């Protein structure tokens, strides 16, 4: 028990109104008893409170809450506000944006449901329930359905010729949950972690929620500056490097094969886990991307998140995490505490569909459809009289667009929301909270007519802002 | 930034091997720079390291790692072990027990899949996919499907005549996730919370994982000692009281109606949230249980967890959390960071089935089947020549059995595992880690023959232990 924690504890209780201004704080003896700690520790905490002007002393009486300490409207707040104020503050900036309804949803990096083989899928589900009549009555294990793990494990082995078995795999409800569980077992407050700059906004929110210090690694079309990565690993001893090296979200960049091998070596040398989020691997347009970093790893320093359901059946939310047992075992425990296991129904539906021939045909068609949408978006962007810049993505779901200085992203977003257009401002993808002249436009969720009309409107809005 | 946190941070890095024995620690200037904090703070942390014998000083050189500090086999550990050792340690004692395969599963408080209307359910699923052909292609919002929230909200309003709307509701993947998310937004390290003694083992693990101090409230067949509860609320100012007042797990006890009203008043007075976990409400045998505490709450101090899928379709894992917006709003954010929303597929299947007439008929039958299983278990327990004691549960899935002193639960569990019988030892349900003469036997997962044979075998094992 440590006096600084006791100090924080008392401050929290003052803030939530357990003790008001000029209230007497519990005696040192009593608080020591209550917290089950040494009196000296409490004494030190009270001294610090005094020193910081949070409490004052009345001779022979005790410690009292100082007036400057409390918020002016503490008394006025009603009960519900005070419940809220006592909750730990978490942010989810991306989901705040997604809550805005928009006719032109360029903010959603999801596949348009019209591009999915819905009817076939429904037929498939019916078959699955014929095969497993008791499916609805059965729980999954926290680690995930054995059959599903086996099929996905074999898939990875077949494609990449790695050694792997089903005990080195965990099924999660989407990649988001995998990121969250990994944070919970690896991040302690103040721990350094490396993240790409820019990166997936919701991952930033998760890592911050766990109290991590985020160290940015710039991601350019050529990859990372590996000397810089080494320096950062040496200097900060990060717990892990969270990366999305293939058709990266939001930029669309792909890390070159040479850097992949070198990074795995750096990870080993500096004992820094690489968390490789590979959600867009199969969404390539011209050629297949390089092999995952995971496949170069022999020492167990890469954890591989492969979200399979995004482009197959997003409603199912199936992600597989592959890693050494030393990583997977604590993850299973975290998963069992978090939700006791992903629903078996969705796992069984997925595993049967995933193995069907139809699924491969669907993927082929989907890639073409997405490529067409990307082309249309690029065409409209190029036609617009705005000097915005981007690099053609060779896969994935997004275009990362640099706005001219005359068009601030924040202004553009506000005006766009009003005209029912949504996109993701670059700032929320930046661990440094800058990148105010970048935006992410997803071409995957809206159809071809909507892309044309939406980008044209966006250009008009940008033009108006420029001319102000 | 606080020097005690810096101290912990350095200790963690020493433990994980960033610096070995007699290695020089970074200079104060450098570490202050790295962590972005004041040099004085680092200086204080180094002083404490010295004071605690974790570091020593070389004149005009700096701080070095002391030898007594490192584990003797730190060098010998292989890479994977060191990854594991760097993970935050979480426990999930209940899921450890469930991993043991057993012919007589008295440890699983789940409904036997044979008691569920599986065929009907499967037919139902097919209909749902006809209604929503694009179901597989669609994400849910983090808060949960609007239609499902509306149906469950109306159900609560109809049954209990409370004011409620769908914005005061969140859908989670089972009650386990609701407990976990609530812990994450309300518990900071060292915060006191009240829990029943005994209580749900996995809840203890979640709360401990968040760093809570667990204050036990004894639960007897007459309820709680409310004077004691008031004293504990006054003294410890707990963040919340996690309770399972209806057919309580593991005891089967139900909190009397008079105590329910008084508790809600206490909650208001001491600003202590009540988290009412009501997973077994519909599993009554003779008469309906009293109304949930939630229905007596007008000020927003009760959060109500109603797990609906347990006895309907456990494979779906659907729980609803009801509470004021001030609680639900931060919960939605936590949910969106945790997994971006429960799969839509399971929500849609559930909502349609839940509204069917068939569902009510099923519930009626299920209650009778469970009552018969309880009766059989009691009959066999009574026939055994062991002086064990229990109170007949009037609902729920478990019997809470007190063993004679001559039969320690730990010994009984070990011997039982060997004979393919599993149950939950009382100790893991006790926040004080005692209750070594109690065990929880679930009668819901095993069929009638298995109950007879299993309890008979259990009695024989107990008899042998007694005679030793």
TrEMBL record, chains A, B:
PROSITE patterns: HTH_GNTR. Keywords: Aminotransferase, DNA-binding, Pyridoxal phosphate, Transcription, Transcription regulation, Transferase. Residues 1-68 form the HTH gntR-type domain. Gene3D superfamilies: Aspartate Aminotransferase, domain 1, Type I PLP-dependent aspartate aminotransferase-like (Major domain), Winged helix-like DNA-binding domain superfamily/Winged helix DNA-binding domain. One of its GO terms (molecular function) is transaminase activity. Its cofactor is pyridoxal 5'-phosphate. SMART domains: HTH_GNTR (SM00345). Pfam families: Aminotran_1_2, GntR. InterPro entries: Aminotransferase_I/II_large, HTH_trans_reg/aminotransferase, PyrdxlP-dep_Trfase, PyrdxlP-dep_Trfase_major, PyrdxlP-dep_Trfase_small, Tscrpt_reg_HTH_GntR, WH-like_DNA-bd_sf, WH_DNA-bd_sf. In the C-terminal section; belongs to the class-I pyridoxal-phosphate-dependent aminotransferase family. This is PLP-dependent aminotransferase family protein. The lineage of its organism: Bacteria, Bacillati, Bacillota, Bacilli, Bacillales.
């Amino acid at each position: 028990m440590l006096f600084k924690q006791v100090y924080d504890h008392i401050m929290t209780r003052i803030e939530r109104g357990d003790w008001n201004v000029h209230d007497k704080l519990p005696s040192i003896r009593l608080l020591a008893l209550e917290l089950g700690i040494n009196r000296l520790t409490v004494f030190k905490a009270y001294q610090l409170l005094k020193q910081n002007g949070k409490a004052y002393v009345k001779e022979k009486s005790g410690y009292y809450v100082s007036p400057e300490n409390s918020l002016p409207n503490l008394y006025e707040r009603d009960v519900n506000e005070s419940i809220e104020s006592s909750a730990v503050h978490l942010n989810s900036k991306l989901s705040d944006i997604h809550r805005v309804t928009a006719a032109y949803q360029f903010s959603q990096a999801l596949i348009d449901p019209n591009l999915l083989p819905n009817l076939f899928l429904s037929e498939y589900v019916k078959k699955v329930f014929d095969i497993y009549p008791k499916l609805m009555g059965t729980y999954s294990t926290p680690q995930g359905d054995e059959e599903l793990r086996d099929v996905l494990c074999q898939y990875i082995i077949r494609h990449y010729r790695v050694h792997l078995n089903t005990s080195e795999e965990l099924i999660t409800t989407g990649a988001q949950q995998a990121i969250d569980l990994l944070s919970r077992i690896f991040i302690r407050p103040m721990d350094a972690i490396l993240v790409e700059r820019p990166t997936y906004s919701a991952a930033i929110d998760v890592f911050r929620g766990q109290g991590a210090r985020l160290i940015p690694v710039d991601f350019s079309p050529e990859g990372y500056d590996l000397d810089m990565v080494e320096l950062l690993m040496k200097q900060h001893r990060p717990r892990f490097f969270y990366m999305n090296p293939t058709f990266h979200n939001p930029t669309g960049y792909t890390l070159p094969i040479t850097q992949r091998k070198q990074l795995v070596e750096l990870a080993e040398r500096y004992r820094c886990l690489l968390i490789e989020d590979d959600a867009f691997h199969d969404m390539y347009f011209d050629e297949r991307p390089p092999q995952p970093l995971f496949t170069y790893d022999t020492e167990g320093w890469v954890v591989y998140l492969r979200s399979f359901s995004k482009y197959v059946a997003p409603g199912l939310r199936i992600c597989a995490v592959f890693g050494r047992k030393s990583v997977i075992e604590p993850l299973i425990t975290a998963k069992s505490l978090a939700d006791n296991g992903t629903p078996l129904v969705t796992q069984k539906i997925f595993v049967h569909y995933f193995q069907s021939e139809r699924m491969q045909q669907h993927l082929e068609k989907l890639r073409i459809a997405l490529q067409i949408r990307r082309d249309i978006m690029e065409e409209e962007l190029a036609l617009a009289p705005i000097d915005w810049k981007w690099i053609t993505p060779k896969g994935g779901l997004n275009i990362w667009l640099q706005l001219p200085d005359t068009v601030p992203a924040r202004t553009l977003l506000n005006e766009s929301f009003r005209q029912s257009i949504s996109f993701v401002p670059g700032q929320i993808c930046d661990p440094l909270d800058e990148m105010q002249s970048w935006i992410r436009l997803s071409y995957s969720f809206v159809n071809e007519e909507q892309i044309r009309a939406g980008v044209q409107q966006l250009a008009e809005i940008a033009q108006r802002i420029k001319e102000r």
